[in-house]
Amino acid sequence: MLFRRAKSLVGLDIGSSSVKAIELKPSGKGYKVSAIGVEPVPADSIVDGAIIDGGAVADAVRRLFANKKFKAKDVVASLSGNSVIVKKITLPAMTEAELSESIYWEAEQYIPFDIQDVNLDYEILEIGTGQDSQGSMDVLLVAAKKDKIADYTNVIAQAGKTPVIVDVDAFALQNAYEVNYGFEPTAVVAILNAGASAININILSGPQSVFTRDISMGGNAFTEAVQKELDLPFESAEQLKKGHDVEGASFEDARAVLKAMTDNVLLEVEKTFDFFKATAASDRIDRIMLCGGASRVEGFAAALRERFDTEVEEFDPFRQVAIDPKKLGLASLDDVAPFAAVAVGLALRKVGDR
Ligand SMILES: Nc1ncnc2c1ncn2[C@@H]1O[C@H](COP(=O)(O)OP(=O)(O)OP(=O)(O)O)[C@@H](O)[C@H]1O
Ligand SMILES: [Mg+2]
Predict the structure, then answer these.
(1) Does residue 347 fall inside a structural domain?
(2) For ligand 1, atom 2: residue with the closest CA
């Protein structure tokens, strides 16, 4: 059994505007996409990372898997927003066994929920070796509320699949980044995934995540601003935002609102970066890797580049993952690449890999 390949899994990113699924196959030294799909989710079915209308989300997931190219039954999904807490804590150095004994007790003071209500996961990052860190170690603590996890796993089960892992968006992004870009040992890279309702930020120093935060602002804020300013229905504002003229308004009319909202969003990003610089071991960010649908708002990447005076690169989740859009029934890779990073990262997980 030693050489048996780990069972294949489907990476399922349950987003508030759409669900995305990807299945990978080993290919040469790397991977290729064997199935991919995106299905819209009705507005307000998922709010702030919480599933409000489970039936509607399950329907979207079911439609996704009506695509026969998906073979695996086991699914890896992820949480984000305020249902998960990721924190680096410093504890006295101890063995794995001692840590697993005491982690719930230690975690209690860092988690704003009743400890009975959360699932905890943790990883020892570093045993302190510096002058003033003698006898201590850094532990990454991840806590997710059990009822939120259950909402996600129920939706997957309702859609006829088996949920086997529930990960965190920020970590999925990191996995997708690693496989596509590798790690530069000394670089500080901020991955920024701008979705419809949130922006996930994961800052990596070399191979290690040193800071994560979700900003609860995203593409919807742009659409709502356009909607309000130009007095349009949501769908028209949505189209306009993407650069398509609609009845009663042209993209030109929306430019100023989009620019103003970009400034608002960048202010939140700046606060996050400032907080990172004040609390983490690094005071610089060398590069921003940008993905998520909302990152496509005209001028967004350029505004980031200018504001933070740093390199901004489009995060291509298929840089080292082979994909044949035609074979998979996609009109163009551009239709999926900006949205696919989390799903790629999830599809890379193997049961029991950590
Ligand atoms: N070309 C475009 N220009 C501007 N915005 C776009 C464009 N394409 C998609 N978007 C926006 O991107 C958002 C969807 O992105 P994405 O699929 O990454 O979000 P999500 O994963 O569903 O949301 P979340 O993770 O926040 O729950 C929507 O707000 C959509 O309007
Ligand atoms: Mg998303």
Answers:
(1) no
(2) 242
Q: How confident is the model at residue 129 (pLDDT cuts 50, 70, 90)?
A: low
Residue 18, H or E segment: strand 18-27
* Arithmetic mean of pLDDT, 339-348: 98
CATH of the domain at 107: 3.30.1490.300
Q: What does the DSSP 8-state code read for residue 12?
A: E
In whole angstroms, how far apart are CA 307 and each of 218, 288, 291? 18, 12, 18
User: Which atom from ligand 1 is nearest to the alpha carbon of 238?
Assistant: 31
C-alpha of residue 216 to centroid of ligand 1, in Å: 13
Mutate to test the pocket of ligand 1, among 48, 241, 246 (most ligand atoms within 8 A of CB): 241
Q: Which atom of ligand 1 is nearest to the CA of 38?
A: 17
Sign of the alpha-carbon dihedral angle for 52, 199, 303, 289: negative
Structural domain including 123 reads 84-144
Asked whether residue 128 carries a pLDDT value surpassing 80, the answer given is no
- Write down how long the chain is: 354
Average pLDDT across the chain, whole number: 93
Of the CA atoms within 13 Å of residue 35, those in its CB half-sphere come to 19
In a domain, 283, yes or no: no
State the Cα–Cα distance between residues 166 and 152, nearest whole angstrom.
Answer: 8
Q: Determine contact, residues 188/308, Cβ cutoff 8 Å.
A: no
DSSP 292: S
Query: pLDDT for 315-331, tens place per residue?
Result: 999 999 999 999 999 99
| 106 falls within a domain | yes
Least confident span in 119-123, 229-233, 284-288, 337-341: 119-123
Kindly state whether residue 67 falls inside one of the protein's structural domains. no
pTM: 0.94
Cβ atoms of residues 175 and 348 within 8 Å: yes
197 close to 48: Cβ distance less than 8 angstroms: yes
Residues 53, 42 contacting (CB under 8 angstroms):
yes
When divided into structural domains, the chain yields a total of: 1
How many beta carbons lie within 10 A of that of residue 237, not counting itself?
Answer: 24
Give the SS3 label for residue 280.
coil
